[in-house]
Specification:
The structure is a single chain. The chain is α+β, with helices and mostly antiparallel strands. It folds into 3 domains: 5-82, Arc Repressor Mutant, subunit A; 125-205, SH3 type barrels (Roll), CATH 2.30.30; 211-272, no CATH class. The chain contains 8 helices and 13 strands. It has helices at residues 5-26, 31-38, 42-55, 84-91, 125-137, 207-210, 225-234, 251-258, and strands at 28-29, 60-63, 68-71, 141-146, 153-165, 170-176, 181-186, 190-193, 212-219, 242-247, 262-263, 266-267, 269-272. It has a 5-stranded antiparallel sheet with strand order 7-6-5-4-8. Helix 1 (5-26) packs across helix 3 (42-55) and helix 2 crosses helix 3. The radius of gyration is 25 Å and the shape is extended.
């Protein structure tokens, strides 16, 4: 006999999460919302709302005149972490990427939402696949790589062992046989990868990848007191300092990203060396 228990439990949890998201972001929850989205009965919707109230008694109260549940100012989320991107996607028709609702694509934002779209820096599917297979299986691969530093496109033998993302594009961390060292190779600059089944161990340990460092960041000393307080709040600093743990190999990317933060044309952040 097929066991439906897990499916029922999962569906019930999704309905409770939806109740919480609606109450938090919309400020109201109606039984019709649950009926329309999940295809359940009004009685089941009422039961779900009562169950959520047992879990979170101060979340909302019932407005008898409006026949709806209205969120309180004291409400706290107990099942989800509030995310603005999720709220924009669900209630305003904005773009979404990987939220719990299961939506994974992108859609055009509503009239009150605009998201800056940066130029895509993506590799071809064939390149990404062969690099990933090499990483997964410890293979030695030959790639045709366009180097910005040298201005040349040439074939190189690599031994990939990790992937990194700097917030804008992917790169593969690999031992380069030409330079005899570990380097980052941007996937979108790899024009071609030869198919390989040649297994080969790394010749050394990538110490910069294995080592973690902690950067301490604080508002720039040239900012005014009001600007400093705004930056501290913006980055959720504690005692005026933000601590960021990062792999040594990714430290440069993090420094570059932090250098983009500006306040009235002035650098907003500085590193404590």
């Amino acid at each position: 006999m097929e066991n439906k228990t897990n499916d029922r439990n999962w569906a019930a949890m999704e309905r409770l999460r939806f109740i919480e998201v609606c109450a938090w972001w919309k400020g109201i929850v109606q039984r019709q919302d649950l009926v329309g989205l999940f295809g359940i009965s009004m009685a089941q919707a009422s039961a779900d709302l009562q169950l959520y109230l047992e879990m979170n008694p101060v979340a909302f109260v019932y407005n008898l005149r409006q026949k709806r549940y209205e969120a309180t100012a004291e409400m706290k989320c107990v099942m989800t972490k509030p995310r603005l991107d999720e709220a924009a996607a669900r209630f305003l028709g904005g773009p979404v990427r990987g939220v719990w609702t299961g939506l994974t694509g992108e859609s055009e934002g509503g009239g009150c939402i605009e998201v800056l779209k940066m130029p895509a820096r993506e590799s071809s599917a064939a390149v990404a696949r062969r690099v990933f297979l090499a990483l997964l299986n410890g293979l030695r691969i030959k790639v045709r790589y366009a180097s910005v530093n040298s201005g040349k496109e040439e074939w190189r033998w690599l031994r990939p062992h990790a992937l990194g993302h700097n917030g804008a594009r992917w790169h593969v961390r690999a031992w380069c046989e030409k330079t005899q060292g570990f380097r980052d190779f941007t996937l979108s600059r790899i024009a071609e990868v030869e198919w390989s089944r040649e297994e080969m161990d790394l010749p050394a340990q990538d110490k910069d990848w294995e080592q973690w460092v902690t950067l301490q960041v604080r508002p720039h000393h040239k900012l005014s007191d009001q600007q400093r307080k705004a930056v501290e709040r913006d980055y959720a600093m504690r005692n005026g300092v933000l601590k960021l743990k990062v792999r040594r190999a990714m430290e440069g990317y993090l420094r570059d990203r932090l250098g983009l933060a500006m306040a009235d044309g002035k650098p907003a952040l500085r590193l404590l060396e």
